[in-house]
Specification:
Distance between the termini: 38 Å
Largest sheet: 2 strands, antiparallel
Radius of gyration: 16 Å
Shape: elongated
Number of helices: 1
Strand order of the largest sheet: 1-2
Order of helices and strands: EEEEH
Number of strands: 4
Length: 68
């Protein structure tokens, strides 16, 4: 598993919605894996959050260009 931290912030006129995903395990300097006490996600969850962020960003870019 790769060590990652995924953040997705959605800001509207009224509020800010934040999503954070940290791996449940991380790789130590010696190459072993260790439990991450603040980790809540597996790699699939983190990948889905990354995809969601890219889709939202792409939709907003299309809207800003007058496409929607």
């Amino acid at each position: 598993m790769e060590d990652k931290f995924v953040m997705l912030d959605i800001v509207t006129e009224d509020e800010k919605i934040s999503f954070r995903a940290r791996p449940r395990e991380y790789k130590t300097l010696t190459g072993n894996t260790s439990f991450h006490p603040f980790g809540t996600s597996d790699s699939d969850d983190m990948e889905q959050l990354t995809i969601l962020g890219r889709e939202i960003d792409g939709s907003l870019a299309i809207e800003d260009s007058g496409g929607i």
